[in-house]
Design brief:
heterodimer, A: mainly alpha, MetI-like fold, 78% helix, B: alpha/beta, Rossmann fold, 6-stranded mixed sheet, 3-stranded antiparallel sheet, 33% helix, 24% strand, binds adenosine-5'-diphosphate, binds magnesium ion
Amino acid sequence: MTVGGDPAAAASGPALGTVGRLLPPLGGLVGFFGLWEALARAGLVAETLLPAPSGLPAAWLSELRGGYWGDAVIGSLSHYLSGLVLGSGLGLALGVACGLITGLETTLSWVVRVLRPIPGLAWVPFAIIWFGISPVAVTFIIGIAVFWINYFAALGAVRAVERDLIEVAQAFGHGALWGRLRKVVLPAALPGMLSGVRTGLGQAWMAVVAAELFGIPGIGARMMQAASLLATDLVVVYMLTMALLYGITDTLFELVRRRALAWQP
Amino acid sequence: MAAVATLDGIALGFGAGPGRALVLEHLDLALEAGQFVAVVGASGVGKSSLLRVLAGLIGPTAGRVALAGAPSRQRRPIGLVFQEARLLPWRRVLANVELGLEGLALPRAERTRRAGAALELVGLADYAERWPYQLSGGQRQRVGLARALAVDPDLLLLDEPFGALDAITRASLQDELLRVWERTGRTVLFVTHDIAEAVYLADRVVLLAGRPASLAGSWTVDRRPRDRGSIELLEVAEAIRRQLARSMPPTDRAPEYQI
Ligand SMILES: Nc1ncnc2c1ncn2[C@@H]1O[C@H](COP(=O)(O)OP(=O)(O)O)[C@@H](O)[C@H]1O
Ligand SMILES: [Mg+2]
C-alpha cells in the first residue's frame, strides 16, 4: 500500500556506491600506515622513538596473551561508560530543567560561569582526595568532562522548542509540566541533546586516558607503564586500541541516533 | 436550540499596567448545537485570541466562558485545528491523531480504533504509518482535522485552517470539511480572513472588528448545498465587506478623496 515514491530509497543510490564511498577513507588509512612504515624502515629515527607498524601485531599479541590488554580494555570501558552515562545524564537533566524553569537558569548563571571553564583534569586532585585512587575518581573526572557539553546542548535545545508545539500539547490535554515535557519538549529537544551526547563520546575517551594516568588500572595506566619501560610499540598499540574503541562507540551511537531520529527528513 | 458554548462579556488584554492594550472587549457570542459559525475579521484583530479564550488556553481579563457539555474522561469538549497543522514531526500520522486521546481514560486499543476512524473520516487511512514530512500541506491539514475530531469534541475550533494552502487544495478541503461536518453533526467555529470562504461554509457569519474588537455584525446563510458563485452568497459577502469598511478605525480607512 505504498503511495508515492520512498524518499529514503532514492537517496541511498545503487549498491556500487557503498564500495565507492568506503574506498577513499580506506586508501587514506593504508597510505598513512605505509608512510609511517617507510619512515621507520628507512632508519631515519630510532625504533623506540617511532616503532614500525609492522611490529605492532606481535606486540599486541603478547600483550593479549598476558591478559593485560583485555584487562585494560575492560577497565577503561567500564570507566568510560559509567562516567559518560553519569555525566551526560546529569548534564542533560540540569540543562532541561534550566531550559524549562527560567528562574533556575538565572539563579545558576554565575555558578555555571565559575565552574564551566575548569577542565576535567583540574579536578584530579580533588577526585583523588575525595574518592582515593579508585574507579570512582576516574568516573568523576570523565563525568565532568562531558557534563557541560550536555548541559549546554540540552539547555539550547529546550529553549528552541517552538511555542506553537507547546500550545498543541496544551490544547490536547498535556498542559501540565510532565505531559508537556513528555509529549513535546523532550522529543522536540532530542536531536539537539543527542548531538551533545555525541560530542561527549569523544571528549570522554580523552578524559579516560588522562584520568587513568594516575594509576587506576585501564588503558591510560598501561600506556604509562609501557612508556616508563620505553616500550613505545605498546604505547602505540594502546593508542590504536583507543582509536578503535572510539570508532566503535561513535558508530554504534550514530546507528542508535539515526533510528531515534527516523522522523527527520 | 441549546448553546454548546457561550461567551459572555469577554474582554481580553495582554500585558499589565498602563501599557496594557485590550484586544477584545464586550464580546458576546453563543454557539448553538450543530451550527457552523464563521468568524471573519482583518488580520491582527483578535480572531486567534478569541479561539484561545474559547479553548481555555488563555483566561479572559473579564467575562465568562461557558461550555455546556458534561465533563467526561472519555472525550474532550473542544478540538482545535491550527493554520500550520502543527503536527508533531516525531510521531507518525496515526500517533499524531492519538495525541488528544492519550490523556483520556481509554484502553490502548480503543485509542487506536478512534484515531483510525478519524483518519478514515478525512480520507487518510492509508497514511497512518507515514511521517508528517512525507505529507503534502493539504494532507497535513487533514491530519490536523482528524486529530481534533478524534477527541469526540462538542465543539470544533478551526483557526484559518486553509489559509496557507493553494486555491485548488483549499476548495477541496472546504468541501471535505462540510462533508465531515454533515456526517458528524459537530458545532463548528471557523475563523478566517476570507469572506468568500466564510459565506460558502457557514450557517452564520459574524464579523469581528474594532480596537478593542467586538462583534460588529452577524449574517445567516440558509441554503445548502451551495454554489460558490451564487448571487445570494455574493450579496451576503458584499454586505459583510461594507460593514467591515464602516467599522474600520478612521486611520486604517482608505482616504475618502481621490486625486
Ligand atoms: N501573547 C500575546 N501577547 C501580547 N499581545 C498579543 C499576544 N497574542 C496576540 N497579541 C496581540 O493581539 C492582537 C490580536 O492577535 P490575534 O488574535 O493573533 O489576531 P488575528 O488572529 O485576528 O490575526 C494582535 O495585535 C497581537 O499583537
Ligand atoms: Mg490568527
